[in-house]
Amino acid sequence: MGYTDRIIRVIIAVILAGLYFSGSIIGPLNFVMMVFSVILIVTSVVGICPLYTPFKISTLRKKLANKH
Question: Which of 7, 10, 23, 31 has its CA 20 to 30 A from that of 66?
């Protein structure tokens, strides 16, 4: 998982957590948003998204080989 992907996940998680704690949304959706927020934080810290593996998605930049 690339750096930009991780940052975007953390930003979304913070927004969702803010909505959760502010009580902006009530009911079951509030709980779902918090769980999703935790999942985003965990995948950002670990650096692996389980959904990327079966689809062979990578957000890492490809390193350029030295051409000398």
Answer: 7
**Is the pTM higher than 0.90?**
no
Which stretches of 23-62 are DSSP H helices? 28-46
What pLDDT score does 49 carry?
85
Encoded amino acid at 8, one letter: I
> Residue 62 domain-assigned?
no
Q: What is the tally of structural domains in the chain?
A: 1
What separation in angstroms does the CA of 12 have from each of 5, 6, 18?
11, 10, 10
Summarised one tens digit per residue, pLDDT across range 30-47 is 889 999 999 999 999 998
Phi, psi of 18 (to 5 degrees): -65, -40
CB atoms within 10 A of CB 65: 6
